[in-house]
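Shipment paperwork, digital attachment
Item: protein structure file
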Amino acid sequence: MSTASAALAGYLAELAEQRRLSPHTVSNYRRDLEKLLAAAGETPLGQLQVHQIRRYVAQLHGQGLSGRSLARTLSAWRGFFAWLGEHGAVPANPCEGVRSPKAPRLLPKALAVDEAARLLEPVDGDDPRLAARDAAIFELFYSSGLRLAELAALDCDALDSVLHEGELRVLGKRSKARLVPVGSKARQALAAWAEVRSELAAADELALFVGLRGRRLSHRMIQLRLSRQAVLAGLPRHVHPHMLRHSFASHVLQSSGDLRAVQEMLGHASIASTQVYTHLDFQHLAKVYDTAHPRAKRK
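Attachment content:
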């Protein structure tokens, strides 16, 4: 087990330092691979066979792991064994040919256009500095489809290209940079926040978005402020940052039909990740058809 643990540590170090995966992703790999070591027990990794891997997957499934989670776990195991094989530690990859149970395809939840408009309306009675900050955050999420981590990591030097060129350079997954457009409403909100940011920010703080203590706003606080805004706006469901990213993607796709452009703006490595929004668009069309066509089946 000590040898397996050392191999795991080496693999995770390579993921973090050479492949430059995020700490969150490396943590997920660690958790999935520790399941492998726990299932293998005293059996050396080099002696594991395909039937044993299948049994481990079945055991995890029996413990309630979903098909999607099992697919991710099996992918982590497969990558680890491939790495071990490259280092001569195992004779073959026992995960090859092993498939996880199929998971139902869950479509991302997006706001309707009118719901997004309600969400972005200012809230009365709030601290004007916090209101300006929150408006800039929410408008930027919806305007440019940023991930939570991408937005939270922005520094003040991002403002120049936003305010003068209407674009933002974002560092996404695996440290891959991309340029995204920033709409006029978001630029106006960011300009308003820039005027009052110094009233909250510590003198040496580089972060674009800060809290009352003057330091970079945490992911959790951004989530809480957005959830609060949705409640105050009277929206009937929980709203989180990724929902605004989904809303951005589905609304742009509905208006433009340009799947490749949406892929670039979202920073998806594969067009397959973006194609899910075509299903959202079809759901909207099907709903319109069912309610408007005289020969449609009313539900």
